[in-house]
């Protein structure tokens, strides 16, 4: 009896173990089934994410390349402008140097002309005294020359007295002959056409003159 009970107990224990093994096998089978079922989906999802990532990376690389190209173009433009700036600075420097030379030459020319005019005015003063005679009230030390127009051969101006208002000063015309000035007219009327034309006075200096009949003529 006891032996029969032991046999039955062993059978139950064996059956329970077999059931447990079956449950484990079924559980494993279900687990592998789920894994096999999910693998295609996961693989597809991974492929989709990778494609999206590659797409974004491609866009980023494209923008980076465009940015580099723009940067290179900007650098080239900056270099070009820098070269133009250097050229302009060089030209400006040369122009300043030329300007300084021209200003210096012009200053020297003006100073020379002033010296020449001053020298000519002294000669005209002497020629005026000779023209009116030494007996006149005009003395060389008491007069000075006012220049209106002067060329290398012709002069127009007036003689002014020192310490005088000189309200109405006669017009004076002189011509240079053999490096010496000669007064040909001094007065307030129009000069003689004969003298004016004889010495070829420019019309800008003398535009009217009197003919032999005393008529005033326009010079052309």
Helix content range of the residues, please?
A: 55-70%
Spell out the helices and strands N to C.
HEEEEHEE
Strand order in the largest sheet = 1-2-3-4
Poorly predicted runs of 5 or more residues: none
Mean pLDDT rating:
79
Category by helix and strand content: alpha+beta
Rg calc: 60 Å
Topology summary:
Blueprint: H1 2-132, E1 143-150, E2 154-161, E3 171-177, E4 180-187, H2 193-198, E5 208-210, E6 216-218
In short:
The chain contains two helices and six strands, in the order αββββαββ.
Protein architecture, described:
The protein has 220 residues and is α+β, with helices and mostly antiparallel strands. The protein has a domain at 59-188. Helix content is 62%, strand content 17%. It contains 2 helices and 6 strands; from the N terminus they run αββββαββ. The strands form 2 sheets. Strands 1-2-3-4 form a 4-stranded antiparallel beta sheet, covered by helices on one side. Strands 5-6 form a two-stranded antiparallel sheet. A hairpin with a 3-residue loop joins strand 1 (143-150) and strand 2. The chain is rod-shaped, with a radius of gyration of 60 Å. The mean pLDDT is 79.
Spell out the key features of this protein.
220 residues, alpha+beta, 4-stranded antiparallel sheet, two-stranded antiparallel ribbon, 17% strand
């Amino acid at each position: 009896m006891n032996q029969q009970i032991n046999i039955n107990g062993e059978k139950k224990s064996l059956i329970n173990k077999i059931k447990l093994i079956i449950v484990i096998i079924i559980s494993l089978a279900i687990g592998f089934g789920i894994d096999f079922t999910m693998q295609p989906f996961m693989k597809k999802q991974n492929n989709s994410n990778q494609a999206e990532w590659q797409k974004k990376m491609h866009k980023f690389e494209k923008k980076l390349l465009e940015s580099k190209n723009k940067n290179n173009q900007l650098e080239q433009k900056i270099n070009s402008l820098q070269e133009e700036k250097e050229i302009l600075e060089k030209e400006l420097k040369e122009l300043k140097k030329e300007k300084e030379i021209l200003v210096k030459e012009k200053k020297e020319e003006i100073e020379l002309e002033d010296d020449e005019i001053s020298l000519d005015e002294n000669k005209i003063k002497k020629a005026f005294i000779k023209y009116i005679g030494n007996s006149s009230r005009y003395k060389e030390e008491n007069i000075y020359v006012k220049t209106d127009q002067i060329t290398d051969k012709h002069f127009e101006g007036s003689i002014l007295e020192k310490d005088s208002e000189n309200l109405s000063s006669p017009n004076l015309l002189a011509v240079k002959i053999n490096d010496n000035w000669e007064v040909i007219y001094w007065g307030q009327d129009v000069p003689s056409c004969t003298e004016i034309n004889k010495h070829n006075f420019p019309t800008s200096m003398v535009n009217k003159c009197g003919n032999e009949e005393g008529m005033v003529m326009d010079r052309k």
